[in-house]
From TrEMBL:
This is AGAP002726-PA-like protein. InterPro entries: Cuticle_Struct_Prot, Insect_cuticle. Coiled coil: none annotated. It comes from Anopheles sinensis (Mosquito). Residues 1-24 form the signal peptide.
Amino acid sequence: MFKSSSVLCLGVLVVLLVSGTTSAARRDVLRQRSPQVVVVEEYEEKVTTVPPPPRPYAFTYSAGRAPGHVDRTHSEVSDGNGVVRGSFSYVDPRNQVRTVEYTADSHGFYPVLSHLPKTTQQTEAVALAEQKHYALYAKIAQEHADAHHGLVVEPKVPKDTVAVAKAKDRHLSLYEKIAQDHARIGAEQEAQRLAFEATSVKYEEEH
């Protein structure tokens, strides 16, 4: 009786263990199949550090391609409120010193080129001479236009030199001789053709 009860209890325990294992496996499968929701929290990091105010500064330097030789300089000054003034110089390929002065602020950069050529103004004497020149030019142009108005200019035939005239005569003589030879040869060929045709007709009539 005791053995039967023990066997029965052991069987029930095995069934419970198997059922528990199966239920746990089913829960794992369902958990894997069910969609997972991931919550992402957004946050904004605020910078509370205030940048330091601009500080005034100044610098200057000079340099060159060889020791003791200076071919460019640069200097700049800032007032600490965003306005910068400076200038730089250099030697161009023509061995002339070029200088640029500039100002920079919140509105932009403004260079001033000191080496630009300056426009010279004409003196009173030069302006008067220029006016006389243009007036004389207009007068001459009008006179030429009036002189050639309605005038038909015939082309001039150049006159032959003695050598050219002799060469032309020889050319014409040779041309006439060749033309006569061609006419004679043509007449002879025509006579031969007529004689051949007459002989052919006579031969056909006889036969």
